[in-house]
User: What shape does this take?
Amino acid sequence: MDKKAKKKVLQMVPYGAYIVGTKTEGGVDHLMFGTWLMQTSFKPPLVTFALSQDSRTLANVRRSKAFTVSILRQGQEDLAQHVLDEAFDEVQKERSPSGLPVVASGAGWMECRLLAIVEHGDHRIAVAEATDFGVGEGKPLSLDGLGWHYGG
Ligand SMILES: Cc1cc2nc3c(=O)[nH]c(=O)nc-3n(C[C@H](O)[C@H](O)[C@H](O)COP(=O)(O)O)c2cc1C
Assistant: This one.
């Protein structure tokens, strides 16, 4: 395999900038910056999110079978960095209908109910039905807009 080509080609896949919201076992809000999200069905509205096998987010999702995805808007670049830095107090939050954290003033959010986890690779694929949605403001922020990469 041409490893340089592998990285280059995989980094051509366009991605967005999302915050996955879950709760810890103790009921504390947890936020994770992530990008590997995809819609996979119209009816019902299904999405998949690839979650790092070692992440607290995956552990929270396995346990609670629920998570939110907030879609960041252009202008929320600092917020993305705050979440990566785990400076969660810097992030203004609201609640989804089931009480999970979503980012305030983002482009939009969805609440997801876990259906299955595909147990392959170093990221496990959470297959979920999106059960509630909220539309915010602004234009979605792309990973490219942040100047960041995750594939490769
Ligand atoms: C640009 C970028 C994109 C990322 N995308 C994902 C992703 O799609 N899925 C994921 O599990 N982690 C992703 N991460 C890593 C997470 O942000 C996080 O550091 C790690 O998974 C630990 O998550 P935790 O806080 O739930 O333990 C990404 C990190 C960066 C810098």
Notes: The chain has one domain: 18-138. The beta strands are 18-23, 29-34, 37-41, 46-52, 66-71, 93-95, 101-103, 108-118, 123-135.
